[in-house]
């Protein structure tokens, strides 16, 4: 698998899943635009990629802002001469609450980043791809977008929306040499889970058929495959990467 000569954009790639995707793409030869709202984290990922011999550049962007998203795509083209691959990873969670307890500001914040941000990113990316012969998109959804999510309604609803954007977009652009897929992570050992007490993490792992938490690299491996020519006949797929949880 090689992405030599390809330019990739990864949103929310200053840490966790996004950082793992950016690093993997760079190892496979892609020039990578790292984007985040945390400049320190994003620049650190770029430095790590460059130190390992890869090509990367950083551009801050709030994906809920259309102008910033458009500028992000323009930056990729100006910096590396094009854009061929995109991974839309930006999203936020919320504190567990029942539906009637959720404040409008909490709902709006989750929807603006996770759902609106994915839509705006796809909009800018597909416009560029349509004008330049095609491209590939992977959205980072969640198994929460495939199931009921009691007490996490905003998160679940936003991820269900990402799943719908993926499937609908894949149909809309199937004849334009644009493939759109998604990865649906289960419980992944990102910073939020890593900070939990050992007993709590063990409890999460016990509910997974494979009896371990996933790693950001597990998601990166799936995303990179979906972006590759090895998946050239794959579009509209939402791939659970969850240790078997979805079908348990």
TrEMBL record:
Gene3D superfamilies per UniProt: NAD(P)-binding Rossmann-like Domain
Keyword Oxidoreductase found: yes
Protein name stated in the entry: Enoyl-(Acyl carrier protein) reductase
Organism: Microterricola viridarii
GO molecular function, one term: oxidoreductase activity
One Pfam family of this chain: adh_short_C2
Claim: Oxidoreductase is one of the keywords in the record: yes
Domain of life: Bacteria
Family listed: Belongs to the short-chain dehydrogenases/reductases (SDR) family.
Keywords in alphabetical order: Oxidoreductase
